[in-house]
């Protein structure tokens, strides 16, 4: 790869990293191309050398966020998901760290409410990311012998996403942490993971 092509790819990655962080915190409507390019240390005019449009950027930023989410799923659930991995994923997902580090956390709590308003390509990619997350949970539940793992996986995922969204809107940090703690405990107890 020529140096200029390599530099262009690095610049594109930097723009996507900034866009993914901004979307996790502010949603897709919170992204201004001018502000994003400034945060990436680039000029506004250079944007179109990397993306066809703002909608194109949003779609690729959704991919970027869900690549991070897939890495988290691999870390906790691996190739052969099991109950211990699922318990660890629940603990991680509903942690104080994940609550406070929105710019690096799962995009689902921030973007789920506005997913229906995402540009078409971004929405399709969002749905793939959602399905991948649910599938990881489903496979872990199946390995534990749970009946109707598909339905339960959707319920577990909804509770995790909703709990994190709810905790993040609390102005009182202690209340937010209590919400996270209660959901971690209740989820694991309901799934038979409380002692794991």
Automatic annotation (TrEMBL):
Residue stretches making up the HTH tetR-type domain: 9-69
Stated name of the protein: Regulatory protein TetR
Keyword annotations: DNA-binding, Transcription, Transcription regulation
Organism: Sphingobium chlorophenolicum
DNA-binding region boundaries: 32-51
Alphabetized GO MF terms: DNA binding
Pfam families: TetR_N
PANTHER family reported for this sequence: TRANSCRIPTIONAL REGULATORY PROTEIN
Keyword set includes DNA-binding: yes
Database matches in InterPro entries: Homeodomain-like_sf (IPR009057), HTH_TetR (IPR001647), Tet_transcr_reg_TetR-rel_C_sf (IPR036271)
Lineage: Bacteria, Pseudomonadati, Pseudomonadota, Alphaproteobacteria, Sphingomonadales
């Amino acid at each position: 790869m020529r140096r200029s092509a390599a530099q262009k790819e690095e610049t594109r990655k930097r723009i996507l990293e900034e866009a993914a962080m901004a979307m996790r915190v502010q949603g897709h409507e919170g992204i201004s191309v001018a502000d994003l390019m400034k945060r990436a240390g680039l000029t506004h005019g250079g944007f179109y050398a990397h993306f066809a449009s703002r909608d194109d950027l949003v779609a690729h930023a959704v991919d970027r966020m869900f690549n991070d989410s897939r890495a988290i799923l691999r870390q906790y659930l691996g190739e052969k998901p099991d109950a211990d991995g699922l318990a660890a994923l629940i603990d991680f997902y509903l942690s104080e760290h994940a609550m406070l580090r929105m710019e690096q956390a799962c995009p689902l709590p921030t973007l789920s409410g506005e997913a229906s308003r995402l540009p078409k390509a971004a929405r399709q990619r969002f749905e793939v990311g959602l399905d991948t997350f649910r599938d990881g949970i489903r496979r872990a539940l199946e390995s534990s012998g749970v009946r109707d793992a598909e339905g339960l996986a959707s319920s577990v995922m909804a509770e995790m996403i909703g709990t994190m969204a709810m905790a993040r809107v609390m102005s009182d940090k202690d209340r937010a942490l209590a919400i996270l703690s209660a959901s971690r405990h209740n989820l694991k107890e309901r799934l038979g993971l409380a002692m794991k």
